[in-house]
Amino acid sequence: MAGRKPSGMRNRPAGAIAVLLLIAIVYFLAEIPEEERGRGSPTKSGEQIPADAPAEGLVPVELVRTIDGDTIKIRYQGKEQNVRYLLIDTPETNHPQLGKQPFGERAKDRNRELLANGEVAIEFDIGQRTDKYGRLLAYVYVDGESIQEKLLEEGLARVGYVYPPNTRHLERFEQAEIRAKDKGIGIWSIEDYATDRGFDAGKAEQAGKSRETRNREEADQAGPFANCKELRAVHPDGVKRGHPAYSERLDGDHDGMACEAS
């Protein structure tokens, strides 16, 4: 008869039916792979997707120009937009307060050079896609190769501006930075220049003055000297052949030692 409940359901209490439905739902959810559940959205607790989640894919873009070591202008979705590289920081080239910092121009030139050699694409992370200046926040690639990782590897950038959950490639980038540090190249060639807050131009200036002083001292020690009196004022014991200050003219006995003490 119409409206009649099936015999299996007729005598079951409403509570028992609800329990059966709940068990069925739990079983269905258990069959869904964990990586599919919650993909693309926060979990029920409000937690973000893990930072090592697979990339959504690279988005081909048209490069308009290179602004500096960590910023470019591209054509994206029909309009020109600036892109700030995620997770790295390069020295400034023309900052209103900081001015031009050591290795800033080199980082910019290298960035331009790398971008000129293939197809440019960007990759967004799972968090915020723009910063407070309206710039896109992305990883940048040329023919699938990471520009950020390359700049870090060559000592032209430091890992910086780390704001979870935009940390997908953080571990790789940190390893690239460590390799450059160990080699002492680029920004790491100046002691204490690169810090976790940015770049200390004062340290670079001190290092430059120290190098200048050393160069001047080396020049003073190298001569040329007019006579042995002048040479001994700097090198009291004289100098051997091969030393920058050595001169056959001052090696009277031709024993390979100029102006040796008698």
What would you say about this model in short?
Its EC number is 3.1.-.-. Residues 201-262 are annotated as: Disordered. The chain has helices at 7-10, 14-30, 104-115, 147-153, 170-183, 201-222, 228-234; strands at 59-60, 62-68, 71-76, 79-85, 88-89, 120-123, 136-142, 145-146, 158-159, 194-195, 198-199, 239-240, 257-258.
Any descriptors?
13 strands, alpha+beta, 262 residues, seven-stranded mixed β-sheet
Verbal overview:
This protein has 262 residues and is an alpha+beta fold. Among the domains are: 141 residues, OB fold (Dihydrolipoamide Acetyltransferase, E2P), CATH 2.40.50; 36 residues, no CATH class. The protein is 32% helix and 18% strand. It is built from seven helices and 13 strands. Strands 1, 2, 3, 4, 6, 7 and 8 form a seven-stranded mixed beta sheet that branches. A two-stranded antiparallel sheet has the order 5-9. Helix 4 packs parallel to helix 5. The radius of gyration is 33 Å and the shape is elongated.
